Amino acid sequence: MSRQSEKEAFWRGRRVFITGCTGFLGSWLTAALLERGAAVVGLIRLREPDSELIRTGLISRITQVSGELLDYDLLRQTLVEQQIDTVFHLAGQTIVGVANRDPAATFETNIRGTWLLLEAVRQTPTVRGVVVASSEKAYGEQTTLPYREEFPLQGRHPYEVSKSCADLIAQSFAHTFGLAIAVTRCSNLYGGGDLNWNRLIPGTIQSVLDGQQPVIRSDGSFRRDYLYVADAVRGYLMLAQHLTEPGVRGQPFNLGSGCAVSALEVVRTIVALSDTPEIEPVILNEVKNEILDEYLSPAKAEQAIGWRPQYTLAGGLKEAMDWYKAYLNA
């Protein structure tokens, strides 16, 4: 059996529980697991019709559990009755602006929701391990680049703090109770299915496909780390396959490109890939108090599980644009 076949065989028939399965990343991860033959159980709070999982009909191929992440009894019942082997915890409040407007609800979902799920896992012997989604935002503002996993987690604003806390809680359950848990800290994910038009990449692609000038709210110089969602999914699957190994159990892992790209570079790349390469962006220069540069070192993930991004920025954006073109035309 080839190495690739062994990877595919790992998931065949394996019972997987995903929180946040209808979200942007969750839809991609669910599709990848179904393709590999896993039996997926998804926790669904609201049925968002624009979710890629729902739009494609793939939701009909999973076992759907309706309810809240904050319902401990439901979590425990689901893990036990569905005989879950692997858990991916992706659910949470992910919009920074919403977190600033409603910090209490963000803390409830992102922090309390994490420890409730992990406590349910601790009480369920069938669960082999958990991958918990943190974020590069858990680092807060750092003075040294690139961000590495040994850096302190020092979120200051509500969303950052919620991810710092959830990240530490996951590590606490791993180190205190011996649970096979790994934490992912992804950089800025992009790709088809992300319909938050306020984000730089979806908003720019939508504008360019409509023949409109894309708008950059900052001065265009802020540099960020962008990761195509397919690369992130591959990282999640690889971590889950290695959860019980000493170099993975209880560890956080950066999933990022390892380099920073300015907003202006991203926009110009999208424009260059379009049918209207002469369009110039509108630069508003309205953003204040932003961190100038953020990017992650993926060296630990490469050393531990052999993961590194396979997509270039241009390659990922090309696939993303094809998806958005088909979606908007439909």
From TrEMBL:
Cross-referenced InterPro entries: NAD(P)-bd_dom (IPR016040), NAD(P)-bd_dom_sf (IPR036291)
- All copies of the NAD(P)-binding domain together span 17-319
Q: Which Pfam families match?
A: GDP_Man_Dehyd (PF16363)
- Top-level lineage group: Bacteria
Q: Which PANTHER family match?
A: DTDP-D-GLUCOSE 4,6-DEHYDRATASE-RELATED
Q: This protein is called what?
A: Sugar dehydratase/epimerase YfnG
Q: Which organism is it from?
A: Candidatus Promineifilum breve
Q: What is the lineage of its organism?
A: Bacteria, Bacillati, Chloroflexota, Ardenticatenia, Candidatus Promineifilales
